[in-house]
Amino acid sequence: MSSTGLVTGKVVVVTGAGGGIGRDIALAMAREGAKVVVNDIGASVSGEGQDAGPAQKVVDEILAMGGQAAANTDSVSDAAGGARIIQTAIDSFGRIDVVVNNAGILRDRFFHKMSMDEWDAVLKVHLYGAFYVSRAAAPHFKEQESGNYIHMTSTSGLVGNFGQANYSAAKLGVTALSKSIALDMQKFKVRSNCISPFAWSRMIGSIPTETPEEQARVERIKQMTPAKIAPMAVALASDASAHVNGQVFAVRNNEIFLMSQPRPIRSVHRSEGWTPQSVLDQAMPALKSSFFDLERSGDVFSWDPI
């Protein structure tokens, strides 16, 4: 198992690691010397069904390459499950050093058609799940005065997208959760950062491939594999990135972006204060040139990966 040992000896929990991005992060962590807890309930993309197989299969892959790993099939969507995931790390390897909050489901629907259950299920896994697992690790991190959180966010929340009010709200919530953790726990030498991953494997089947141009585009998009996300996660888990805290990165094929965070960009002042009419007559016209367009993620990231 050749590596540079960037995370040798660290115990890493990766949620939703039975496939996709989580699996590749778990494998990459193991290659770099980490002991990995592979968590996955084995559900479908929409969160339905349950199967212990995916988590154990990834554990077997890690063991086969000479690494150390343990499987966990608890759901992140309840506090007791989150606690058991962290406890698996303690029971198996005696400590916890890194939490990768990757578990997620999709229940896409236009906002005006979204059911309460569709809203609730996605928030529970993404936002509540990130909190539950992170919170369970916090006392260990505080006690040992070290620890590292890596959360998966999305440009659906950072920028916007159609039909994903639940997912977008959860993912933007995760970025705020990460910043709060970074602020609250920096005095204990604990870090928290986000990755917004582009990995289009689930979409490949729905993209048209009728013309040579379309076929070539799909081939380019296929390069955006989940494995492209793993190097950033391993780098953030390493002590060599001890200076990186409270940041949001995006990874898209061979590109890495530092994403902006909300800050004031323009202001107007009126010494006598504002009335509703003066807001309309003066403030809005003055600020209008700096308004943001109603863009989707695909409008901002409008070029194909190379």
UniProtKB/TrEMBL annotation:
Domain Ketoreductase: residue ranges: 10-206
SMART domains: PKS_KR (SM00822)
Top-rank taxon, per record: Bacteria
UniProt-listed InterPro entries: KR_dom, NAD(P)-bd_dom_sf, Peroxisomal_Beta-Oxidation, Sc_DH/Rdtase_CS, SDR_fam
Alphabetized PANTHER family for the sequence: BLL2957 PROTEIN (PTHR45024:SF3), DEHYDROGENASES, SHORT CHAIN (PTHR45024)
Family in the record: Belongs to the short-chain dehydrogenases/reductases (SDR) family.
Record protein name field: 3-hydroxyacyl-CoA dehydrogenase
Taxonomic lineage: Bacteria, Pseudomonadati, Pseudomonadota, Betaproteobacteria, Burkholderiales
